[in-house]
Amino acid sequence: MIIFVISSIFAVFSLQFFVINLQIQSLNRLIINTPISLFSKAVYDLNDDLYFDVYLLEETLNDYYVNEITKYTNKYEISYYFYNLEDHSYCTLNFCKGVDITISCSLINNYHFSLTMYYEARDGRYG
């Protein structure tokens, strides 16, 4: 009888671990494979230099992430940190050269998952 109880507990924990692992893999794929076209919509050429339009980028990515993340969890937070490339200081303008996007969410049993991706607006024609 004790063996049955122990094996049942082990099976339940294994199943929960499998579901959490599956959700993490799906969220990783979702975030890492964010379509580049979403970023290219918000890139502007000002004086032969590329910049992200802060408001357009946030709006576009929020629409995408909210539609996709809700398939896996209802508790999530998306934060943006726009910065200058030269010194990585906070950018207060409407057009910035770099952004880091942090997505945090709670999965089963309040397991916390967080991932940060960094993107920079650069001209790739010259290497």
Key traits:
127 residues, 3-stranded antiparallel sheet, Pantoate--beta-alanine Ligase, Chain: A,domain 2, 29% strand, 6 strands, alpha+beta, elongated
Describe the structure.
This protein has 127 residues and is of the alpha+beta class. The chain has a single domain (2-126), classed as 2-Layer Sandwich (Pantoate--beta-alanine Ligase, Chain: A,domain 2). 41% of the residues lie in helices and 29% in strands. The strands form two sheets. Strands 1-2-4 form a three-stranded antiparallel β-sheet. Strands 3-5-6 form a three-stranded antiparallel β-sheet, with helices on one face. A hairpin with a 5-residue loop joins strand 5 and strand 6 (112-120).
- Give me the side-by-side strand order of the main sheet: 1-2-4
Overall pLDDT score: 85
Look at the helices and sheets and give the structural class.
alpha+beta
What's the helix count?
Answer: 3
Largest sheet: 3 strands, antiparallel
- Estimate percent helicity: 40-55%
Pattern of helices and strands: HHEEHEEEE
CATH topology (level 3) name? Pantoate--beta-alanine Ligase, Chain: A,domain 2
Provide the CATH top-level class.
Alpha Beta
CATH architecture: 2-Layer Sandwich
Number of individual domains = 1
Strand content: 25-35%
Question: Which regions are unreliable across 5 or more consecutive residues at pLDDT < 50?
Answer: none
Radius of gyration: 20 Å
